[in-house]
Design brief:
The structure holds two protein chains of two kinds. By secondary structure, chain A is mainly α. Chain A is about 30% helix and about 5% strand. Chain B is of the alpha/beta class. Chain B is built from 17 helices and eleven strands. In chain B, strands 1-3-2-4-6-5-10-11-9-7-8 form an eleven-stranded mixed β-sheet, sandwiched between helices. The relative contact order of chain B is 0.13. The chains are: A mainly alpha, B alpha/beta.
Chain lengths: ~100, ~500
């Protein structure tokens, strides 16, 4: 299990889309290693044949009537946008030239 | 009676009664609490913001309704403040994070709609650990809240602003959210009542999500009666939250009026082992003795999976958080990094700059537990172990009506005591976490003080959707002892 107790922090931070400072990277490496070691308790539990619980009281297929309801206007929806123009959110270019 | 200093000490129901009897107006009440906030919040820092004009406007509307004989119900004109993760249209919602620094809610949460429909004066945004991740409010990007009983100590968390505001008498009632103890633990540390309802009892629509399978909104107050009133106001099925429970809500306040026959209370032996502070134990023993005197039967029960609840919780909660918090991406409604050049940069830099340390730690931990190669060993295994935890409670409830435990292993701790050691901070929720994993309702009721005057709380855990019985058992004690009505010197 020792392999699991250390984490490739750069790989996972990229999965989480969080840029870390060098200081944070070093600090988290140690702290998260401790937390993972603490999680090793779970590996000892006998869960053979046990169904997973996703929700305490599972509910499936909650249907809504297919009717149109009032939504936000473009103006309201863009109130908190960091940059907006012509009723749209402005973002950096995502397509390579 | 229009003396401010008398109004702010009153409970929600006392204010309600005073309004009904014409002793004071909602405007006077609201003004009294605003004055109180101005007087003490510099020390306590329970509030991140409050909109004085908006609150007074709502109070005047309430007074108008009353003067024309159209008062709505017991909450009409009574102030209720919200943890800063619950949406109120036009008001800020920061979640105590820099990333939502300038955000304003474009809509009301369902609980906010329900409070407004009940006539409550809804205002005041209360401090918390960023995105409700923490047990001390030390993770707030806007500075911690201080415990009104000892300003050198934490108020608990994550809903520390919600508990401290009630303890400091800055508002009679507040709402918080509880994912692993975030209502009950701060209630315990601040000497007020705090309740997490059954999962699904209260709509989560408009609550900034942390861990969707665990989060519930719930009330804070001085008394169990007030909690019952606030809970019945915010409960109920909501088509906007498909996990909300489709059943009618009993009148919780009315349910407290009858006399409760003493019943069976379970004492989980795993909770009463190591790690419990001696003074906490003493206060809980006294509460147990009180119940016994009233004819309640104490039954030793076993919850063998107790020591697994913290790791199970942190695997599940961080996984759900890493997924939920993906929405704070710097694109649509969060603060965007000014140093980003391409799309990936916008995400990574906005989140790197906008999130605090604990939020980053948890998002990374959650992403790890869900990542390829680790999913089965962590997330799936945690979900299976969660089933075992639920089964333990089911077995226990075949023998008892409710479970009695301390809420927190210690009274309020000092700032900095646990903030650099995540695991010791995580363990301060050891008595509350399993309730969330099993989806059950839990309430923290003040049950005494330590020798140096710090509040201690007792937790009662009930069966799913049986809040009526749970509140009645809690009220039986609280009506007599009323520790939550004691007021700190500020």
């Amino acid at each position: 299990m020792s392999e699991e107790s250390s984490m490739d922090i750069d790989y996972v931070a990229n999965l989480a889309r969080i840029e870390l400072t060098a200081e944070e990277r070093q600090k988290f490496q140690g702290q998260l290693g401790d937390v993972l070691k603490y999680f090793e308790k779970l590996q000892e539990v006998d869960v053979e044949g046990v169904e997973p619980t996703a929700h305490a009281f599972p509910r499936y297929n909650v249907w809504d009537e297919d009717v149109a309801v009032e939504g936000f206007s473009a103006e309201e929806a863009l109130l908190n946008a960091p940059k907006a123009r012509s009723e749209q959110v402005v973002v950096p270019k995502v397509v390579e030239e | 009676m229009s003396d401010h200093s008398e109004i702010f000490s009153l409970t929600g129901l006392e204010i309600s009664q005073g309004l009904a009897e014409g002793k004071f107006s909602s405007e006077e009440v609201t003004q009294a609490f605003i004055s109180r906030i101005k007087e003490v919040d510099e020390k306590v820092h329970a509030f991140l913001s409050y909109d004085e004009d908006d609150m007074l406007e709502q109070a005047k509307s309430s007074d108008n309704r009353r003067s024309t004989g159209q008062a709505i119900g017991p909450l009409d004109g009574v102030p209720v403040c919200l943890k800063d993760v619950i949406s109120a249209k036009g008001q800020p919602l920061t979640a105590a994070s820099k990333i939502l620094e300038n955000y304003r809610s474009p809509y009301d949460a369902t609980v906010t709609v329900k409070l407004k429909q009940a006539g409550a004066v809804v205002g005041g945004r209360l401090n918390l650990d960023e995105f409700a991740m923490g047990s001390s409010t030390e993770n707030s990007a806007y500075g911690p809240t201080r415990n009104p009983w000892d300003l050198e100590r934490v108020p608990g968390g994550s809903s520390g602003g919600s508990s401290a505001a009630v303890a400091a008498r800055e508002t009679p009632l507040t709402l918080g959210s509880d994912t692993g103890g975030s209502i009950r633990q701060p209630a315990s540390l601040c000497g007020v009542v705090g309740m997490k309802p059954t999962y699904g009892r209260v709509s989560r629509y408009g609550l900034a999500a942390f861990a969707s399978s665990l989060d519930q909104i719930g009330p804070f107050s001085q008394t169990v009666e007030d909690a019952a009133l606030l809970l019945e106001t915010i409960s109920g099925h909501d088509p906007l939250d498909s996990t909300s429970y489709p059943a009618s809500v009993p009148g919780y306040l009315n349910a407290l009026k009858g006399k409760l026959e003493p019943c069976k209370l379970g004492l989980p032996k795993e909770f009463f082992g190591e790690g419990m502070d001696d003074e906490v134990r003493k206060a809980i023993d006294q509460a147990i003795a009180w119940y016994k005197e009233q004819g309640y039967e104490m039954v030793e029960i076993s919850l063998p999976t107790t020591d697994l609840s913290v790791p199970v919780y942190y695997v599940i909660a961080t996984a759900e958080a890493s997924s939920n918090l993906a929405r704070y991406d710097g694109i649509r409604y969060t603060k965007r990094s000014e140093h980003s050049e391409n799309a990936i940069d916008v995400y990574a830099k906005s989140r790197g700059e906008g999130f605090g340390e604990e939020v980053k730690r948890r998002c990374i931990l959650g992403a790890y537990g869900l990542s390829s190669g680790y999913y089965d060993a962590y997330y799936l295994r945690a979900q299976k172990t969660r089933t075992l935890i639920r089964n333990d409670f089911e077995k226990a409830f075949q023998k008892v009506d409710a479970i009695l435990t301390p809420t927190s292993p210690t009274p309020a701790f000092k700032f900095g005591e646990k903030s650099e050691d995540p695991i010791s901070m995580y363990l301060s929720d050891i008595y509350t976490i399993s309730t969330n994993l099993a989806g059950l309702p839990g309430i923290s009721v003040p049950c005494g003080f330590s020798e140096n005057g710090l509040p201690i709380g007792m937790q009662l855990i009930g069966q799913a959707f049986e809040e009526e019985k749970l509140l009645a058992i809690a009220h039986a004690y609280d009506r007599e002892l009323q520790y939550g009505c004691k007021q700190p010197n500020l």
